[in-house]
């Protein structure tokens, strides 16, 4: 079966993700020219046929997912940065421990076997 999709409507990312979602059921070959993406698929034995409408729906779903990803990228990066920044906050007492010299640590505390307890 051969399908074609307009490159102005769908992104390469959407095509690749849609094709990947069907790779367990079919062998896929992807191609493109200036105006269209081409999908040639051959069903693997024992699997139901993938229709052009089903593949088009998957392309649409992947296009929307990619668009949402692009639109929310900055907020996700800010949330991750904020989450990571809160892990850098030092608790009371840690500052004092950092100021101690190496000689002030007791060898028994450092070399303690945690699995023997």
Report on the architecture of this protein:
The chain has 117 residues and is an alpha+beta fold. It has one domain. Helix content is 47%, strand content 17%. It has four helices and three strands; from the N terminus they run βαββααα. It has a three-stranded antiparallel beta sheet with strand order 1-3-2, with helices on one face. Helix 1 packs across helix 2. The radius of gyration is 27 Å and the shape is elongated. The termini are far apart. The mean pLDDT is 84.
Instruction: Identify the strand order in the major beta sheet.
Output: 1-3-2
Helix content: 40-55%
Order of helices and strands: EHEEHHH
* Number of helical elements: 4
User: How does the overall form come out from the CA principal axes?
Assistant: elongated
Give start-end ranges of low-pLDDT stretches: none
Gap between N and C termini, in Å? 66 Å
List how many beta strands DSSP finds: 3
Summarize the structure.
Helices cover 47% and strands 17% of the residues. It contains 4 helices and 3 strands; from the N terminus they run E-H-E-E-H-H-H.
Topology at a glance:
Layout: E1 2-6, H1 12-21, E2 26-32, E3 36-43, H2 52-86, H3 94-99, H4 107-110
Antiparallel strand pairs: 1-3, 2-3
Helix pairs in contact: 1-2
Structural key phrases:
47% helix; 117 residues; single chain
């Amino acid at each position: 079966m051969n399908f074609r999709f307009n490159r102005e409507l769908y992104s390469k990312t959407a095509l690749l993700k849609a094709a990947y979602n069907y790779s367990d059921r079919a062998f896929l070959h992807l191609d493109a020219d200036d105006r269209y993406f081409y999908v040639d698929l051959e069903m693997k034995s024992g699997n139901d046929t993938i229709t052009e409408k089903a593949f088009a729906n998957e392309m649409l779903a992947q296009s929307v997912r990619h668009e949402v990803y692009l639109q929310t990228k900055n907020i996700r990066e800010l949330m991750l940065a904020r989450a990571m920044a809160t892990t850098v906050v030092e608790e009371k007492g840690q500052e004092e421990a950092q100021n101690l010299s190496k000689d002030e640590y007791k060898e028994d505390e450092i070399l303690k076997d945690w699995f023997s307890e």
